[in-house]
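Repro:
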Amino acid sequence: MNTSTVEFLNSGAVLPAGMPFSEAVRVGQTLYLSGQMGIVPGTMRLAPGGIREQARQTMENIKLTIEAHGSSLLDVVKCTVMLADISDWPAFNEAYQSFFEDGRYPARSAFGANALALGARVEIECMAVMAA
């Protein structure tokens, strides 16, 4: 018998209303975040400046979303990174690692993609396990 409650969450902190997916889904103490891109919150415009700025904005959007649902980057246990060009990996990694303290990096996968929505350079999805 499944005793976990499933909650479909949309805070409006980053994504505009009316998107055909939930920004996060909570099952018990696990929070699953939909892929985030480097959009300016409340818009569908990518942050200008290329991979570094989009990576930084993507991580800021993840932070905003996760905090809107009672969690923090300290709770993130897994990230999947999709790059429009795998050669952007070093520049992406530079921005990414600055968001995690004391070497507490989540498990991570990264791969190159043929293309990403909105012409983004990076998209990241995460899972977090929240304290009981």
